[in-house]
């Protein structure tokens, strides 16, 4: 009997020989992790046994690389994976930890529906707290703040974070709030913006998090960016990134010239409506952008350029207002439907 598949999807994995980062199709089983060069491959490129392994998250060994976690096997071999966004990393980490625990206890992996609370007496569920903080109606309001001739977009101040924690009764006082905010910062749920908060996070201040109106922070997947003495051209270019992120993740994209398929990380923003795509293995600047205003997006049941049957599954097409065609492939029918619906909403409401 084959091991049960618990979770699968695209992650970026660090190579063990050349130390390069490449996107892989990763499958979490009850007893190990298999990774494939392509989703359509029949044989895995490698397998990581989970018995006796340990997991580290967040893993901050690689500086600017965010959403990384590390698995260390019993032979002291380290395997590094990078997710596309924070919630995706947490979902993988949660399931891998549970799989390891089930192996140790001789139990079968089974999901349980539990209501998580952010007001636990001894420990705080930082993941649940983070989602509450991001709530569009009751969460922390993201602002455009100015300091030292710079404009910080999609961020908030340190004292606003503590105010929110206290007012929502997540903590009993500001000192306790400072401790929780420091934990959120250390786990990667909050990021520092500006010299003051960055210096504190780097250890040059007494506390890594500052309860201060001049200390700026942002959510890691909020679309934060900083403007400094920009020219008119720069301002026009950055207009694309002002939209709120409504969906992100990895998809396969077909190239316009060679018609080959490559894994790309996509970030969907609305108002203005843009779909930016990036090299998932690294790079802060997008490889390209699709302006979605007035576009048409539909599912595609056949691909004339397909070599194998697997290349015809879960396809969808975006046709822009300028009649440029983009072919994308999701991992599952459900994921394709979710992307199509999200893009349709953004195309109608965004600029």
Automatic annotation (TrEMBL):
Source organism of the structure: Ursus maritimus
Q: Which residues form the signal peptide?
A: none
PANTHER family for this protein: PLECKSTRIN
Q: Which UniProt keywords apply?
A: Acetylation, Phosphoprotein, Repeat
Q: Which gene encodes it?
A: PLEK
Give yes or no: UniProt keyword Repeat.
Answer: yes
- Gene3D superfamilies, per this entry? Pleckstrin-homology domain (PH domain)/Phosphotyrosine-binding domain (PTB), Winged helix-like DNA-binding domain superfamily/Winged helix DNA-binding domain
> By its UniProt entry, which InterPro entries does this protein fall under?
DEP_dom (IPR000591), PH-like_dom_sf (IPR011993), PH_domain (IPR001849), Pleckstrin (IPR037370), PLEK_DEP (IPR037371), WH-like_DNA-bd_sf (IPR036388), WH_DNA-bd_sf (IPR036390)
PH domain location: 4-101, 244-348
GO BP annotations of the record are:
actin cytoskeleton organization; intracellular signal transduction; platelet degranulation; positive regulation of actin filament depolymerization; positive regulation of cellular component biogenesis; thrombin-activated receptor signaling pathway
State what protein this is by name: Pleckstrin
Name the PROSITE patterns on file: DEP, PH_DOMAIN
């Amino acid at each position: 009997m084959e091991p049960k598949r618990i979770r699968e999807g695209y992650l970026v994995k660090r190579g063990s020989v050349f130390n390069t980062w490449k996107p892989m199709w990763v499958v979490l089983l009850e007893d190990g992790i298999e990774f494939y060069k392509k989703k359509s491959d029949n044989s895995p490129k490698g397998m990581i046994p989970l018995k006796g392994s340990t997991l580290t998250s967040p893993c901050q060994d690689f500086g600017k690389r965010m959403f990384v976690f590390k698995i260390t096997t019993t032979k002291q071999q380290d395997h590094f994976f990078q997710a596309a966004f924070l919630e995706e990393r947490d979902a993988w980490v949660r399931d891998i930890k549970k799989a390891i625990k089930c192996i140790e206890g001789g139990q079968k992996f089974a999901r349980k529906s539990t209501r998580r609370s952010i007001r636990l007496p001894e420990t705080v569920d930082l993941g649940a707290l983070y989602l509450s903080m991001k709530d569009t109606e009751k969460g922390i309001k993201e602002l455009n703040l100015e300091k030292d001739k710079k404009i910080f977009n999609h961020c908030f101040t340190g004292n606003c974070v503590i105010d929110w924690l206290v007012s929502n009764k997540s903590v009993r006082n500001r000192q306790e709030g400072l401790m929780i905010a420091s934990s959120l910062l250390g786990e990667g749920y909050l990021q520092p913006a500006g010299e003051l908060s960055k210096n504190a996070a780097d250890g040059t201040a007494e506390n890594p998090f500052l309860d201060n109106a001049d200390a700026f922070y942002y959510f890691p997947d909020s679309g934060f960016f900083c403007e400094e003495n920009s020219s008119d051209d720069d301002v026009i270019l950055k207009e694309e990134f002002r939209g709120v992120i409504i969906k992100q993740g990895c998809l396969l994209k077909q190239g316009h010239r060679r018609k080959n398929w490559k894994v790309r990380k996509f970030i969907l923003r609305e108002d203005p409506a843009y779909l930016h795509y990036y090299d998932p293995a690294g790079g802060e600047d997008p490889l390209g952008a699709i302006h979605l205003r007035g576009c048409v997006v539909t599912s595609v049941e056949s691909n004339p350029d397909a070599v194998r049957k697997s290349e015809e599954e879960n396809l969808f097409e975006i046709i822009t207002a300028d009649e440029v065609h983009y072919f994308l492939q999701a991992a599952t029918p459900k994921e394709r439907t979710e992307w199509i619906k999200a893009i349709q909403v953004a195309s109608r409401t965004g600029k």
